[in-house]
Amino acid sequence: MCCEKLSPRQALLFSVFYAIVVIVVCSLFQSDFFYIDDAAYEMLGFFRQIGHIWAQGKIPFIVDSMYIGGNEMIDLGKGIFLPQNILVSLITSQFHYIQLPGLILAFINIVLVSCSALVIAKSFKLHNTYAYAFASLVVIQPVFLYQYLGAWWNAASGQAWAMVSIATFFLLRNSFSKTNIILNFISVIFLLSAGWPHGVIGYAVVVGVSLIFQLKRFGNLKKVFYLSTPTILACIFAFPVYSEYLFSYDLINRVSGFDSQDRAFTPSWSTIILGFFPTFYDYITYIRYRLMLIPFGFSTLFVPLVFFYRDVKILWQRDINLKWFLLLIVVFFVLSQMPGQFGPLRWPFRFLPFISLFICLAVFYILQFAPVVKGNTIRLSRKIYNCLYAIWGGFFIFLPFYAGFDTLVLILFLLLMLFLMERSLFNLNESILYNFNKKYFFIILFTSCFVFFNSWNLHPIYVVLQIFSIWLLLLSPKMVERKSTFGLAGLSLLILVMLLTGLPTLGGYYLRQTDLPEHIQLPDNVNLQGYILSLPNNIYLRQTRQLNDIASAQFGFYDIKSINGYSPVGSKRLEQVLPVNQTAHGIFMPRQALKNILQIKGNLPVCHAVLMRISTIIVKKTDYAAFSRQFQQCGYIEVQPAGSRNDLYVSLPLEQTKGWDTNSPFVFPDLAGIKHLKHDNNTDLVRIPEHNDTTILIFPRLWWYGYSADVNGYSLPVVADNSGSLIQVSIPPHLHGMLTLSYFPVTWRYLWFLPMLALIGLMTLLFNNRKQNKSV
């Protein structure tokens, strides 16, 4: 067994250094690698607004500057309680550098994943060399690197905390100590706070399978109970994070159901089986059925090697861990083959990082603990050797002519990196032929046929990458035999370069990507005292240069109050007023939306747009022409054209929107002396003078459970207005004083004891740890 120690300091230093290298390499290939698609359309804007709220010392339950996605107790994916999200939101609120949030999040999450991978490797007593190689491969898994770090920041944080939770569970399994109990408890709380369901499911599968094996191996139900207790306590502690979402389920419009049409986002079997090829490009229904120019299922080069250079059969017979690895791989494989829409879960390719994780772990475990199977040493005659070198040299001389001389730098760079990792690169007797296995050689050549087949019609640069992939696979037995930390970690970086050469970023190829400036010039005469409603569909624009180009939650990044936003779960009540084609991005149906907001409902004297405090509407000229009379009846006037895209800015006069900058409520009937004293994300304070009639106040807030109102301690009902979407409070006659409208999650008023209960359970477990540790 391995007795090498890996100190926390060494693990942290390696992880920090490797994270910096990965970020630099990715940014060199594509400067905006870490803020595309959902990051640019959702997280950037919300992080800036959430950061403003945290900076005021308040909890961002409600982001009052955006209607869509403004309730963070419902939009769990923003993970407002995650430490890295709090830090990044504060930084985003202070600095207007677009790339900074993504770079910081990528650094933190890569460090978390790398440190966790090292802990996992050492919990199975792998050599330090294999541990570093394992960590370096887990970090560059394409789904995590391209999809999560680049586009889905919430997924990257969720995956990172899933890794931390798995690592701390393994620590706990190896040593049931107070420190490990606390670490596992805290990490699972953060995992649950991330709101990333696939991370939670992945951790649950690992824990469940591990506990089943523990029970089968030792038959000790007591041990299983104690190992699962920190996770159970963490679930109790974090349940209030989900309680409001569950309680408000009738208000949201989360996509659900069962749909496997075109196997959307479901990886093929070949993607997983040939995951050892860093250049296996496969077809997948990703937005549309298309060839993916990155191997989403990549795990490690060494998968085929272990079946020919290690006696897996002997290890299988004597080691239960190998069976445990296989069961986890099978379970995650089954999960990855679920329908594209499976209830509230979507897109099963999100389980690929877990498959790759345990394939890598199994491979390095076999490399270390399985008996070595020696290949044959082949010595070629000098004549054959010279012929091979002549063919080899001629091939590389011809290669730039075939692939184009623009690939010459790439070819030379890859050759240099290979040479630095394996000095005997060009000495066949000391590299490929030294420990030669015919079966392994022919398997690599056979599988390479499938790889070439899928990229047959691509640019010749992909052929160059395929050739280097095959070369790496043939050299891998020699690299493993050397067991060089520098060589194996360097191999991961070389694979990263090959991945990025094949596809520098998902943006511009498969995902929406827009070039965001640090600041935009606001047009003159456009009223921004209230909210802005942008009806054109701008999510496919490649450049944002002016106000009418902004889409989704990007308004938040420029500190502009907007109806627009981003919410995967939506709001049924708001969508009744503003129908959408796509819930997440808030892609409106312009004419239906205008019809609803430019009309008077009930006995109120103003249009619904005025109740929502919409001071400016960006609209297509044709839509304005169709509703010009309704615009005029509501007081909106055409201000100016919006650039060259046939858009118009339609605003209310400034004198009609006094107080809208602080989200003052609409009062009916008009009441002299009423004063809006304070507004923040969760609270409004309004001074109510003496009056003789019932006074109605309609606040520009989306209606959710959890709002309460009182005047001098006298509770008032908070109801929805006539549209069903806004907050309405009715003040009875003769009741005057200070009206307080506030939001607090309604379920928290009843579940506040759960965190206390979990902490009491944790302290009890820690108090009894010494006694239980002896029995466990």
From TrEMBL:
The keyword Transmembrane applies. Keywords: Membrane, Transmembrane, Transmembrane helix. The chain crosses the membrane at residues 12-36, 97-121, 130-149, 155-172, 184-213, 225-243, 264-281, 287-309, 321-339, 351-372, 384-402, 408-428, 440-456, 462-480, 487-511, 750-767. This is YfhO family protein.
